[in-house]
């Protein structure tokens, strides 16, 4: 019973709700990108960055 009145409980509830909200926002963002067809260019850009980073690590 004391747990419901503690600030740790409400902080945990707020963090959980914020995490769910961010998940919804990110899902909607990628859904909107895929509908416009721009997802491929963003994914290609990210893959290029990862390949450059891997190449730099390999050359060191």
Q: How does this model look, in words?
A:
This protein is an all-alpha fold. It has one domain. The protein has helices at about 5-35, 40-60. Helix content is about 85%, strand content about 0%. The longest helix is centred in the middle third of the chain and has 30 residues, at about 5-35. The termini are far apart. It is built from 2 helices and no strands. It is elongated and about 50 Å long. About 0% of the residues are buried. Keywords: Membrane, Transmembrane, Transmembrane helix.
Counting structural domains, the number is: 1
How large is the share of residues in beta strands?
Answer: under 5%
Q: Biggest sheet, open or closed, and with what strands and sense?
A: none
How many beta-strand runs? Answer: 0
Mean pLDDT: 72
Q: How many separate helices?
A: 2
Overall morphology = elongated
Binned, the helix content reads over 70%
Alpha-carbon Rg, integer: 20 Å
Head-to-tail CA distance between termini: 59 Å
Compressed to H and E, one letter per element, the order equals: HH
Keywords: Membrane, Transmembrane, Transmembrane helix
Transmembrane segments: 6-30
């Amino acid at each position: 019973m004391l747990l419901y009145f503690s600030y740790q409980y409400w902080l945990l509830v707020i963090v959980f709700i914020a995490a769910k909200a961010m998940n919804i926002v990110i899902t909607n963002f990628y859904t909107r990108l895929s509908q416009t067809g721009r997802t491929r260019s963003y994914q290609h850009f990210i893959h290029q960055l990862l390949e450059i980073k891997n190449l730099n690590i390999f050359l060191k």
